[in-house]
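pasting for the record
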Amino acid sequence: MTIAVAVSGGTDSLYALLTLKEQGHNIFALHAHFLAPSKEREEAIGAMCAALDIPFHAVDLHDEFEECVVSPFMSEYVHGRTPNPCALCNATMKFGALLREAEKLGADTIATGHYAVLEDHPVYGRTLSRGHDPKKDQSYFLSLVPKKQLEKAIFPLGKMKKEDIKAELAERGIAPAYPSESQEICFVPDDDYRAFLLSRGTELGSGGNMELADGTVVGQHNGLWQYTEGQRKGLGIAWKEPLYVIRKDMEKNVLVVGPKAELLSTGCVVSNMNYLVAKDHWAQKLLVRTRYRQQPIPVTITEQDDILLVTYDDPQSPPASGQVCCVYDESLTVLGGGIIEKSI
C-alpha cells in the first residue's frame, strides 16, 4: 500500500509524515497549493522532505479551491449566513481534489495531520470519532466528508496530543518548515472576513433597522452580512439591558435583537446531511455540536423528508445558519454532519 501524506510545512503534517516513515510504510509527501502557488513555500517543504529522504510532489489546486471553497464562502455571506469554509474544504478539497491527485500519483490512501480517530466498529464499520486531544479535536470539521472518501484516509495524530508531538519532534531535532500555527481561515488575511469580502467586491447588502421582536426600532445595522446569531458585542446600541442578535430577516433587511431571555433556542433545522453511519443504526441517545468550541450536548433528532429536526434537551444559544451540525453517539463516534438552516 502506498500512502500520500498531505504536507503543509507545519508541525502536524510533519509528524504524520515522520511517524508513517518510521513505521516502514511506502509513502510520499504531497503539498497542495490551495492559494496562489508559492515557489518559496514549495521549495522549503521540498527541502524538509529531502532531508528526511521522502519523495515530494506539489500540485496546484488554487483554481479549484477558489471555485469549491472561496466562492461559496462569499455567496453564503451575501445570503446572510455564516459559512464554515474549513469543513467545506475537507469535503471538497483535502479529501476530494487532493485525494484525486494523490491517486493519480499512485497512492492508495491519504494521510493528514488531523486530530481525529478512524477505527473499525462492529456495527458501524469504519468510523470517525473525536481526537484524543480535546483542544485540537477536528472531528467536527470532518463530519461533511463522504464516508467513501474517509475510508481512504489515515489520521496518525488521532490519539496524540499537540504538546507530545512538539516534544517528539524536538527530541529528534527535526523542525517544520513553517512552525507557526495556521490562521483560522487560510485565505482570509488577518482573519478579517469583512475586509476580505469588501476587497473581493462582493455585492453585500446595505444597512437597515435594528428592531426588537415587537418592531420597536432601537438602532441601525451596517448590513446583515456583518452579524451573527447570538452576537452581543459590536451592535452599538444603548439600551436598558444588553441586547443580542436574535435573527436576521433577509426579506425586510431587519436585524432582530432582544434580551438574553429571547436568545435561547430549543433546536435547529439541519439539511444536506452527510451520513457516516446509516440512520437505522443510530443510537437512541444522541449528542450534537453546532459550533466548534461547544461540548457535545444531548438532543432528540427526528427526520422529515430531507431534513433533520434537532431538539436540544436544554435550550441553547442559537447556532448560526450555515454552520455545521455534527451528530455523535455517546461514545463520541461521528454519525454524520449537515448544514444548519435555522434555529427553532
